[in-house]
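User: My notes are a mess, but here's the protein and zinc ion's SMILES. Can you give me a structure?
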Amino acid sequence: MKLLQCILTENDCYQAGRTIRPKGVMVHSTGANNPNLRRYVQPVPSTPNREELLSALGTNPNANHWNRPSLDVCVHGFIGRLADGSVAAAQTLPWDRRGWHAGTGTSGKSANDTYISFEICEDGLDDPDYFKQAYQTAVELTAMLCRDYGLDPLADGTVICHQDGYRRGVASNHGDIYNWFPRFGYDMNDFRAGVVRAMNGEEDDGMVYYKTLADVPEYYRDAVAKAVDKGALNGTGNGELNVSEDLCRTLTVLDRLNQLG
Ligand SMILES: [Zn+2]
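Assistant: No problem, the inputs look usable. Here's the predicted complex:
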């Protein structure tokens, strides 16, 4: 995992200066089609290593980044693309600063008081390569935070997403990350399991899965549909396929060789 530091010192949340004792990690995704870190993360003249950061992140020409006053949101980190297209994490608040990411839940409490938070920059939600890299970076960042703060990622309510927070009564009703991860066959149970593997120093297989035929990218779909039609591919029940990208690719090659009829 590549981790940059660009603290959003001009954001009112940073300026408020309240601190927390981190009890968990809350995963968000942005809900907007822009995978570039520079959309949100930019240094200001007083930021250490400003030139270096600008060349790594690229410049946001629209002045809508989050390192400025008068925003009512701020997270501890972002995951997205650098200027060279690679995927990285950027720390944007001290980890123990109180963030503004969860709003207030139905219990009247807020995950802002106890959770470290980061946003994964969404793209069009249909690129398995970007998903794979962003997801894995999120797993590794969460593993690092769990290690540093002595958190057990499998303990109830420790590693959750925004929508989980809503269901637990400590966050506003946003859908993230269930608008995205399930398209590639992942949920927060998979995520937590990945965090455990990362903490144990194990490699993730990095495999992307598609839950239904509709989730399979268009360039693979014809071949996969043929395999389903012929009864060669039955899925895992409930109309779910859970087919891996590798298998989709194999089927597409077979189709090109006219092996699927
Ligand atoms: Zn969110």
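The chain has two domains: 3-199, 209-256.
User: Great, I'll file this with my notes.
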